[in-house]
Amino acid sequence: METANENIRQLMEMLDNPDAYTEQQIQNIINHDEDTRETYRLMVEAKRSSRHRQNKELVNVDAAWQRFNQKFQPKQSSSNWMKIAASFIGVLLVSGIAFAAIHIVRQYQKQETPQTEISENATPPVTTLPADTLTKDTVTVQPVIYDNIPLEKMLPEIAAHYDVKVVFANDVARGLRFHFVWNPQKGIDQIISDLNQFERLSATLKDNQITVE
Amino acid sequence: MLDKRILENCDSSSANQARLELAERKQFIEQLFRRNYSKMIHLASVLLGDDEEAEDVVQDVFLRVADSDIPPKKDNYLLTAVRNACLNRIRQMHLHDKVKRLMPLEDDSALQPIDKRMKRLDDIATYVDEQLEEPHRSIFHLRFDDDLTVSEIARRLGLNPNTTYKYLMQSIQQIRHHFGKH
């Protein structure tokens, strides 16, 4: 117990003056044991909680818009952006560009794991997976190619981008493997719509949850 | 400038059409901005702890949205984009900057729903104000609200530095214990 307290005391001393420590020393102190790591995590949350509480005053949105407006010039859209905005839900758009290579490879392939691994590790032409989740999750123009990836792996990663959960009501669907080109600029409804092009798959979105049957 | 250049290249009827589209598009972005800016800037400020950087992230998200041919379907998408942009910035920070600003060293909880994370931050703030006793509460606020070191807090409150360390540790353990159970 005394040692645990010493570790946490050392953590706090380091946080008071990080410049006196090398990167290795900092890592060693924070990762000394799970207790110290957890204490650091809690301190991160405490700091965020403090900012959360302090930053609750009203924001001057007008001033912010003026600052943004100085940088912002909308580009001319060849695809009539506003029409897309207005008819986003009604139109079932299976884009030949972003959705060119979709097909089910096979339904039950778990027994062929070695072959799958090779395929998953092959270098796709644009952005490969498993990509860094956070980098992938940002607003990006880069499409992400899922090459022979099971739905149970692919869909949660896509869903995380839109901050929605995934529930598999049908275990068979978990093993479905896809060549799927995901464009993160597409809305989640469009992604659901694209997935529902497959006869063996039914995906619905409700209350921030995708249910796959 | 861009608008002018585009319009110069069009005949008059298509120029009118282009002008209309640009105006509609700008209006759409403005509405999106006004509807979501407060939440977005708050989230970015909480995650990054730097107002200028937070504004930079939010503006960048809107610039990308404006530059995209497909508008975001749901406003929540913007918050997710802000969160992810912030987490990417944190990941790119040097270790010393991370610990100075009390940033996470790993992304393990990065994909928790944003509303749950904010609720937890609310809960922690409430717990500190309602459950910590003095001088623990003051020490906690001086450390995390005002970024004072333990020595500075000790001087400010007229306490022994060792005692101040002990109280701060007790507060953190108490919060950990409480939220570990919930």
Brief write-up:
The complex is a heterodimer of chains A (213) and B (182). With 213 residues, chain A is of the alpha+beta class.
Short descriptors:
heterodimer, A: 213 residues, alpha+beta, Phage tail protein beta-alpha-beta fold, 2 domains, three-stranded antiparallel beta sheet, three-stranded mixed beta sheet, 46% helix, extended, B: 182 residues, mainly alpha, Rna Polymerase Sigma Factor, Chain: A, Arc Repressor Mutant, subunit A, 9 helices, 0% strand, elongated, disordered N terminus
Taken from the alpha-carbon principal axes, the silhouette of chain B is elongated
CATH fold category name of the largest domain in chain B: Rna Polymerase Sigma Factor, Chain: A
- What do we call the CATH topology of the largest domain in chain A? Phage tail protein beta-alpha-beta fold
CATH architecture of the largest domain in chain B: Orthogonal Bundle
What value does the average pLDDT of chain B take? 84
What is the CATH C level class of the largest domain in chain A, in words? Answer: Alpha Beta
| pLDDT < 50 stretches of chain B | 1-7
Gyration radius over CA of chain A: 23 Å
SS summary, helix count of chain B: 9
Give the distance, in angstroms, between the N- and C-terminal Cα atoms of chain A: 51 Å
What percent of residues of chain B are in strands?
under 5%
User: In terms of structural class, how would the helical and strand content of chain A be classed?
Assistant: alpha+beta
Average pLDDT score of chain A: 68
Please estimate the helix content of chain B. over 70%
Largest sheet: number of strands, sense, barrel closure of chain B: none
For the sheet with most strands of chain A, the description reads: 3 strands, antiparallel
Give the helices and strands of chain B as they follow along the chain: HHHHHHHHH
Q: What is the helix content of chain A?
A: 40-55%
Distance N to C terminus of chain B: 56 Å
